[in-house]
Amino acid sequence: MSEIQKTPIAANHKVDDIDFGKLFGSLVDAKWYIAGITVLFSIIGIIVALLSTPIYKADALIQVEQKQTGGISTLVSSNMGEMFDQGSSSSTEIAIIGSRMVLGETVDDLDLTTVVTPNYLPYVGKGLARLRNQQISINVSHFVIPDNMRTATVTLVITDIDSNNFTKGRYEVTNAQGNILFKGKTGQWSEGHGYRLYVTDLNGTVNDSFTVTKRARYSAIQQLKENLTIREIGKQTGILELTFTGENPVEIEQIINSISQNYLMQNVERNSAEAEKSLAFLEQQLPNVKDKLTMAEDKLNDYRSKNDSVDLDLEAKAKLTAMVQLDGQLNELVFKESEISQRFTQEHPMYIALQDKRGILNDEKKRLEKQIQKLPETQRAVLRLMRDVQVSQQIYLQMLNKSQELSIVKAGTVGNVRILDKSQDYFSPIAPKKSFIITLFIIFGFILVVTVIFGFVLFKRRIESPADIEAIGLPVYASIPLSNDQVALDKKQTRMDEVHKKLLSEVNPADLSIEALRSLRTSLHFAMMEAKNNILMISGPSPSVGKTFVTANIAAIIANAGHRVLVIDADMRKGRMGYQFSKSQKLGLSDYLSGQKTIAEVVKHPAIDNLDYISRGDIPPNPSELLMHPRFNALMEWAAEHYDMVLIDTPPLLAVTDAAIVGAHAGTTLLVGRFGENTVREVEITKQRFEQNGIEVKGFILNGVLHKASSYYGGNYGYYNYSYASDKK
């Protein structure tokens, strides 16, 4: 009884078209490879996630509000309050926080120009130390470098640990060249070669080393900027969030607190700066005004004593009072003008109104001065002196009042900034995101392996269908499926007298590969009808394509059909035909071509009827030259005369030129290629090289064909399985 098992048969397709079914099938074929690479990358991702240094974040909230004059400053006149009431936008305050003025203070406060880095194994040492809880550290409170250097880097090595206090010990400091600069002890100043160092404590073991760097202040500020983020929460809320990231949670908390405090202090100092400058100016002018007042009073008293205490009549007193009031108003305008000039130009309406008012007061003053000129001389002099006294008194009192008001403004300045939330570090690190890293590596590994597979399929164009070969004009005579029995025979180690059992046509005549070779035998009968002789050369583009397997088994099949067959192993470099026929590789073709043996002496008779065999012989130093010797031509003529068919197994043409030499004597030439290994381009080049040597390649044998998903989904050529069914239940 029998049964028919059918596999898909491909339709013809254009070679240059992208076969998406084949691409999908190639992924199915490589599913375990894809899974393995993906798992490998996931393991790498886990390792990277575990060894990556945790990054922490600390934040603080600051409120920037529009400055309002209140509290003590409400006692000050409205004009004085407006003078120092100046708000600023959040964007301005953000720029101020990120300025070197504020960040530089933090660098100085925390001595961030000194950087201490433990020395671990490259890449993995730091992570391993953290996982094992074996991290090392030292606390350097001061590091001073020579005056002629802006930056410096030294290496500190622990040389001894105090047995009574493991945070104390001794160390030595070396430069980049490895020269010892000085030795020191924790808790003490150590110095040498212009360097000074103070280490308070340490955490490590003997021979642990650290890199201590003194960097420029500007570099430290720039690094603060890189790790500092400032943003306004909401829109026009005036609430700023400061966040800082780093490896040390304690340090980043200190940095954020320092930045917040320094920003607050500069804000208070800035808001009180104008009042302080004005106050300093008034305090500087008050003694001069007081001296003028004293001088005016002395002159008045002297004049009265000399003129018997001259008094003014009512009319003169009225004129004096009016004149003093005018001078007082003019002095007020001077103060107002100084305030207005800081905010407006002279073309502003308020400035113009002030100038108009001054003109009116000056006109009134001139009118009064004309009236005073009509008074008696003594009264005019007394009036002038009294006016000087009263005006000086008024100016002095005004400046004294202004000074007191400015003192109140300065004392009441608290700034328009307050710290809502002090720095608080997150308990858990914000980076790395372990799950994200692992997922990223898995995705990357999957995409990478899929891309590689697609690249091989699209660009390498390995042979997976007879249509691939027929597209270059080379007919395919047979597609030989991969035999599991042959694979097992190749792996099995047998005794020399049992080597002949490795010939698949003898071990399992019903194997699918042998059935395909029987089909090839039929094709050869018609292919060689018009050939110049009965010599068949079997070659290939590259090694390990199965030439020897095809040659030996097709020879056995032809011999079993009653034809006399001679097999010649012409691969005198690496020929392995002897393992197929249980014969030694010694005493063969090379021995005959070199003239050491005759044809009769090199022909061997395997345990297969009608089949003779000539092995490669000893490996000669010049195989190509031996094949060009007339003895080889004589051998070909003798073999063609005494055998029904002569099969010659040759080396791959793309490796050596031996096949081109042998092909000149053969009437028929076939190429063998490996399914999924050889490329179409390799076969095409091999065919072209044979043709360049005047050798026509008759056809192609596709060996090692596998059932693959890429063939199924891509609609490629398959083969029928018409096998014998067992009668056993």
TrEMBL record:
GO terms for molecular function: ATP binding; identical protein binding; protein tyrosine kinase activity. It catalyses: L-tyrosyl-[protein] + ATP = O-phospho-L-tyrosyl-[protein] + ADP + H(+). Residues 16-110 form the Polysaccharide chain length determinant N-terminal domain. SUPFAM superfamilies: P-loop containing nucleoside triphosphate hydrolases (SSF52540), Tropomyosin (SSF57997). Residues 265-306, 351-381 form a coiled coil. It is found in: Cell inner membrane. It is an enzyme of class 2 (transferase). The chain crosses the membrane at residues 32-51, 436-459. GO terms for cellular component: plasma membrane. Keywords: ATP-binding, Cell inner membrane, Cell membrane, Coiled coil, Kinase, Membrane, Nucleotide-binding, Transferase, Transmembrane, Transmembrane helix, Tyrosine-protein kinase. It is a multi-pass membrane protein. InterPro entries: AAA_dom (IPR025669), Bact_polysacc_biosynth/exp (IPR050445), GNVR (IPR032807), LPS_length_determ_N (IPR003856), P-loop_NTPase (IPR027417), Wzc-like_C (IPR005702). Residues 545-657 form the AAA domain. Residues 377-454 form the Tyrosine-protein kinase G-rich domain. Gene3D superfamilies: P-loop containing nucleotide triphosphate hydrolases (3.40.50.300). Its EC number is 2.7.10.-. Belongs to the etk/wzc family. This is Tyrosine-protein kinase wzc. It comes from Photobacterium piscicola.
